[in-house]
Amino acid sequence: MTKSSPRASGPTWRRPLAAPLGKVLCDPVEEASIARMWHAIDARRSGATAWFQGRYGRPLAVALAALLVAVVAGAVLEQRRAAQEHRTEPKAGLTSLVLEGGRPFEKVAIPRAGRSLELSLNDGSRVVVSPGTTLEPLANSASEVIVRLASGRAAFRVNPGGPRRWSVEAGLCSVSVTGTEFIVERSPQHVHVAVRTGTVLVRGDRVLDGVARLAAGQSLRVSADSPALSASRAEADAAGPALVPRVAPGWQASAARGDHAAAYAELGAAGIAREAARAPSADDLLALADVARLSGHPHAAVPPLERLLEQHATSPRAVAAAVTLGRIELDLGRPARAATVLERALTLGVPAGLKEDVYVRLVEAYAKSNRSEEARRTSEVYRQLFPEGRRTPEVEHWLTQ
Fold it and tell me: In angstroms, rounded to a whole number, what is the distance separating the alpha carbons of residues 264 and 215?
């Protein structure tokens, strides 16, 4: 069967046919069917009056036959059109995930004395965030969702068959899935991953070959203090001994425990720059930047973030790096450089939960760089995107500076 082309937009009468017109009009009605039509017409014609036969019979019969062919062809065309409309394919307007009701998927921080929070997303996925948990989206696009579990416990149910690949960054390891139910729990000393249904991939420096596959009923505990890892089924299996960890360098172990001050003490600004120059991955560069930022040395985070944008421009981590670097440059009093990086972040595709903050900071960067026209234009875009934006007063403030 000939593959039909995608249906064009616009009024129905302007849309192209699903196949060449000649084929559509000829294929549905075979010669035998046409012969039967003519036999029926002749039979009806033979019982008509002579006046009907002599003057109008043949033309009217031809017209009726043509009408019948047109009706059959029209029905076939409509069936093909309906079938084409109901094809399962990604929607052209598919964008970042939002919560049910249209609210953005943003950072969640629940105190230990608080209550669990269930986040229902518009693709059918769900995240249950427990008390004492901080969960932050780093990337949220039509093809990928990356969240950072800074602390605590979160249960994920990722809608199977969806177009997005999910990754949960948890310090000692990351968890990648496309559709399953699993739990990730992070403390200063360990990360625990348990799978309820489906399969996940757990990646980290302490996993043999850098990756382990967990199926339903399996769990994996990654410890910062001990090289021992374990994997077990609910009914028990022998997978554990195969998961032999690799010992991480001292600063990485300190960072994984959340002790960024100790990690920075081992490295210093020069050490961070040195490690950034030879870091093999975007994740390593982000880890170095976190050590600098979270230990109170934001200037030392600039080299790894700049290298990430230079060497890993197509990585999903590039968006987070650009947003973070833009904020740092602005806080360091370098608004021109901040504006350049924030512009790049918007080009890369900022997640919905971060977009308002990026536009506000970009207006600030333009204003502090004496680029009033760019600040004004950016503020207009902000008002269009966020007509009831909670940070509108902040935008107005920078326009008057």
Answer: 37
